[in-house]
Amino acid sequence: MAQELGRPSPGEIGLQPSATPIMDSIRAFHNGPLLWTAVLIALLVLVLLIIVVVRFNARANPRPSSTTHNTLVEIIWTVVPILVLVIIAIPSFAELTDQLTVPDGQRKYLGSNIFSFGDVEVPAVGLTIKATGQQWYWDYEYVDQGKSISSSILTEDARLAQVPVQPRLLAVDYQLVVPVDTTVRMQVTADPVGVIHAFAMPAFGIKIDAVPGKLNETWFNAQKTGIFYGQCSELCGKDHAFMPIAIRVVTKEEFAAWMAAFEAGTVDDANATLPALS
User: Fold this and answer.
1) Percentage above 70 pLDDT, the chain
2) Are residues 141 and 129 in contact, defined by beta-carbon separation less than 8 angstroms?
3) pTM of the prediction?
């Protein structure tokens, strides 16, 4: 089955399709050097096991060798893993740095060219949102606009009444609305008297802890419109499995109209300005 943008698909293997430069680099790293390194190591181990079974069984070697050391082999099995780890570490550390370095309009990011020094231009922050993990739902604050919403999982009856029907355990009553091609700074925390949560959006390539009393920060720049789903990824309590995240990415013009209606009225008034889901 083909992968769907922004949500998990039945029978899916691999990572979700990318919607941001960060996820571009994660997919390139996973599907490139990481996957091929794992495959080659597995094949090498299989070949060595076959050689051992065929050449060094009791029938082939009634008098086993008494050799205990081989300097060359020991050097190889020490140096080669080090080289493999170095190759893996280069894009890995670069990706981690990209995830936690909020764009200023000058720094460039890896994108799908993970062995570059950065060739993807990302604009400076255009919107700041604070996500607060509650027990068990999310509060979102548009920091500069001074507007807030609470987002909770939909009941099953409410979900089935929607047109079109949204994914089970991922649909929410109020989606976080952001503009496309805009760098969004995400400030993530949890209720001061609550527990640790984690804000995770697979298609965006972001995952960061929401810790009571601490403000963590990450960012995304969604390059495609649509609804994207994530979940709390920390074992935060009895309703951990019912704490989804839904982000609706709209055009800049649609977001401007949505925010104007929100500032003048309620979030329901704002949502009424958006086109119907398809």
Assistant:
1) 99
2) yes
3) 0.88
